[in-house]
Amino acid sequence: MGRTKLQLEFLFKASPNILYTFLTTPACIVRWFCDKAEVDEHQITYSWSGNEEVALILADHEEEVLRLKWADSDYDSEYLEFKISESPVTGETILDLTDFCDENELNDTRQYWNQQIKNLQKECGG
């Protein structure tokens, strides 16, 4: 079974600064993604129902990109990336999300991220 790169694009009314804050600040992360979050300069620890997942921070450029690698991943070249930009035409903030999954989990992973980002849009004002 092969692995697939999933790339999704979402539009936000919130500024890049606000969106970045919701990706990197524990008090904001728990509003849309997990039950508990701890952030330090090298990693983010996410908790769901008492289970922890550690994501190593590969790149963190304020208001531009947050690239993470799950610490327990078996795939060295895979990452989770949130890339932030602004549309020069509409002024909307664009979030490009990149994730990886098994080919047979592509639809489930897409639905998962669509729901999570819908929660994020609601929490950060659109």
Summarize the structure in words.
The chain is an alpha+beta fold and 126 residues long. It is 25% helix and 43% strand. It contains three helices and seven strands. It has a seven-stranded antiparallel sheet with strand order 1-7-6-5-4-3-2. Strand 2 and strand 3 form a beta hairpin. The longest helix has 18 residues. The termini are far apart. The mean pLDDT is 95.
Oligomer status? single chain
> Can you give the mean pLDDT?
95
Class by SSE composition = alpha+beta
- How far do the termini sit from each other? 37 Å
- Rg computed from alpha carbons, rounded to a whole number of angstroms: 14 Å
In total, the number of strands is 7
Number of helices: 3
Order of helices and strands: EHHEEEEEEH
Shape: globular
Helicity level, as a percent range? 10-25%
Poorly predicted regions are none
Strand order of the largest sheet: 1-7-6-5-4-3-2
Largest sheet: 7 strands, antiparallel
Q: Tell me the fraction of residues in β-strands, as a range.
A: 35-45%
Write the layout of secondary structure elements.
Blueprint: E1 3-12, H1 16-24, H2 26-29, E2 36-39, E3 43-48, E4 51-61, E5 65-70, E6 80-86, E7 93-102, H3 106-123
Q: Which terms would index this structure?
A:
3 helices; 7-stranded antiparallel β-sheet; alpha+beta
TL;DR of this structure?
The chain has three helices and seven strands. By secondary structure, the protein is of the alpha+beta class. Strands 1-7-6-5-4-3-2 form a seven-stranded antiparallel sheet.
